[in-house]
Design a protein that fits this description.
Layout lengths: L2 H12 L43 H11 L12 H17 L2 E2 L7 E11 L5 E6 L2 E6 L4 E3 L7 E10 L5 E2 L4 E2 L10 E5 L8 H9 L1 H7 L4 E5 L2 H6 L2 H8 L3 E4 L15 E5 L1 H7 L7 H8 L9 E27 L10 E7 L23 H20 L7 E7 L7 H8 L8 E7 L10 E5 L6 H9 L5 E3 L14 H5 L5 E6 L5 H11 L14 H20 L6 E2 L3 H6 L5 E2 L1
Parallel strand pairs: 6-9, 9-10, 10-12, 14-15, 14-16, 16-19, 17-18, 20-21
Antiparallel strand pairs: 1-13, 2-11, 2-13, 3-4, 3-13, 5-12, 6-13, 7-8, 13-15, 17-19
Helix pairs in contact: 1-3, 2-10, 2-15, 3-10, 10-15, 12-15
Length: about 575
Amino acid sequence: MTPFSRAALLAAVALCLPPLAPVFAHDAESAPRPAAASKPAATLTPEAKLPLDPRFSADRVKADVAFLADDLLEGRDTGSVGHEIAARYVAQRFASLGLKPMGDKGDWLQRITFQKTEWLDAPSGITINGPAGSGTFARGVDSLVSPSAEEPKLDVNAPLVFVGYGMENKGLSIDDYAGRDVRGKIVVALRGFPEGLPSETAAYLVNSKYEFARAHGAIGIVQIDTNASAKQRPWDKRVLYGSQPSFTWVAPDGKPFDETPGIRVRASLDGKGAAAAFAGAPKSLVQVLKEADRKGARPKGFALKTSARFFGESKSSRVTSPNVVAMIPGSDPALAGEYVTLSGHLDHIGISPAKPGDPADKDRINNGALDNAAGVATLIEVAHVMMEDKVKPRRSVIFLASTGEEKGLLGADYFARHPSVPSDKIVGNVDLDMPVLTYAFTDLTAYGADHSTLGKLTADAVAPMGLKVTPDPIPEETVFVRSDHYMFVQQGVPAVFLATGFGNGGETAYNYFDEHNYHQPGDDMNQPLNWRAGARFAEANYRITRAMADGDTPPLWIKGDFFGDLFAPKAPKAP
């Protein structure tokens, strides 16, 4: 049976599922693998000592994850039949619980058009010209270049200018563009950020490098690894993810969204290509990287003596994929017109392409059980318990299962800019993404909470569960800007992204998942999943969401906070 016909068959079944869907068996080719001896086991705090409100069901969480992570959905890629099935399943679950549909035209789905751009099978890459001569670095081997929908036949040639880390912020006395003329040129920037910056502020600065380049008149940016960033994410992994098609959402007026118009080139160079870019420069690449290795060092920029030509041919097409949106109306007439949003992305990355030498029966389906079927199952479980409450939340609660997160947080970005309620009435967001549910967690990391009153609210809400809120354990990963909550932050909405913490064996569990299962076929139902932990995670998010919805005042940015001042300068602030 072809992939499409199997998925189409399941689609017909999904439309008439009862509230708790039966679990479909996995295909024979993905039979359970034997458990690895190195898999983590919780040994510090016994599961039985961690309290759980009996209203939250481990079995319900398991059933929803099992359906959404089934092989027949083929990894729920944006625009795929499998994702469409998943969206209809979530909509049916919301309908069975009695939520109110908040999609297009009174239904459950907010349909989004995406523009997809991918390289054609033709030569592409970067040619460096300079004192050492000319050298070409092929895309996908020594270089990465993002395809451009605006220029299907990309051919850009411009001088190169080194700009350090390529960041600027007056409040932090950072100005990597000081004294540099980059108008009409391509900037070369170190990847990541210098040690010593606050992690979430640094995450914003890293995420804004294209905007900084555009603001100074550059027409492109090439990033090169520091020794630290190369260790954190080796080049072969960058090639794996950097070779994917690019996506952007299309506005209702038919225009593709472009956050940095004028930036014609987005690229990366590996060691040999990066070294060629610095040929004849005042400092060699080796000297620059050695300087960047020093704690807190910020290498200053200088004009390079090289230019670069970026070339390749691409094609663009359009696909559609829906957000699923539902609501529990608020019970307080004075507050029901304000909205708290609970979100989690429904999409994943689909099926990996076959590699030379792969056996015919190799499992290539990226099921996304924890990333992020578990988050969506949590969303559904919170809705289930909240609908059973005799007294509903005072504020209205929106449940958003977004699409396109794996393509760049696109579904959440679209909803945050085109919500189905007045945008200025969305007062807070809780985002659920990839809880690692393979151990009995005893703490949570609340990314973004300390920027607003959500910090204290979150800690107080989960304290009765014996949970603590702990600081970001992996600041170098800039997690704060890498999940859907950040799209709400950019619209001025206080938001928090909840993740299971590193205590009680969590660090080992996270590292194992990151190495063996993250964005790989191993993220499936064959993992040693702890469903009671899944129910506890749902309870924690329920408590936080209810606290936001029931408070006398909505969440407020802290006075003087970096993100509050940046994205919501006129909003009321808390001391």
